[in-house]
Amino acid sequence: MFFRLTAIAFIWGFTMAPANSETIGSWHSEKVNGYQSYWTKNQRGSRFTIWCPDSKKSALPLIGIDIKGRLPAPETLIRVELDRRLIKFTASEDGYIRPDCAACGDKLRYFWQLLRNSARFAVLFDEDRRYAGFSTIGAGDIIPANVCATNTGLQAKRQ
């Protein structure tokens, strides 16, 4: 009897616990160290991750792109193609894309909308011509329309 009640309580605890991760199509969402991450991985192991801070503090959203096991070199051009629309980003000193310039916030919001509604998605690092294609299946469902756009840190940097 004790084992049965323990098993029921254990199962109930897992089913009633808040979900920290979700998968729709090829896209995943999970909470990690104070960030909500939205990510996908292609068949060759390359990974595209959007990091949105949970809080409205000064932390900025980030985009991390790992192609062939490496982030882009600092201060290099990254070309993102979504349905034949090209968006250019520059990698920061640590290899991530950060929206910390006046036009970057608007570019990031435009990028979110394209990503949610595109059928094709590819990334090219200009420095060494590393290239990866990613699936958009599930992106429009798992990434909310206003992802990272209402972050006050992003607004503060723009002013």
Query: Looking across the biggest beta sheet, what order are the strands in?
Result: 1-2-3-4-5
Give the name of the CATH architecture.
Sandwich
CATH fold topology: Immunoglobulin-like
Per CATH, the class reads Mainly Beta
**Strands, total number:** 9
Elements, N to C (H/E): HEEEEEEEHEEHH
Shape: globular
The radius of gyration over CA amounts to 18 Å
The termini sit apart by 64 Å
Q: Mean pLDDT, nearest integer?
A: 82
Helical residue percent band: 25-40%
| Tally of helical runs | 4
Q: Structurally, how many domains make up the residues? A: 1
Tell me about this structure.
The protein has one domain: Immunoglobulin-like, CATH 2.60.40. It is α+β, with helices and mostly antiparallel strands and 159 residues long. The protein has helices at 2-16, 104-117, 139-142, 152-158, and strands at residues 21-24, 27-32, 35-41, 47-53, 62-66, 77-82, 85-90, 121-125, 131-133. The model is unreliable at 1-18 and 149-159 (pLDDT under 50). It has 4 helices and 9 strands, in the order αβββββββαββαα. The relative contact order is 0.20.
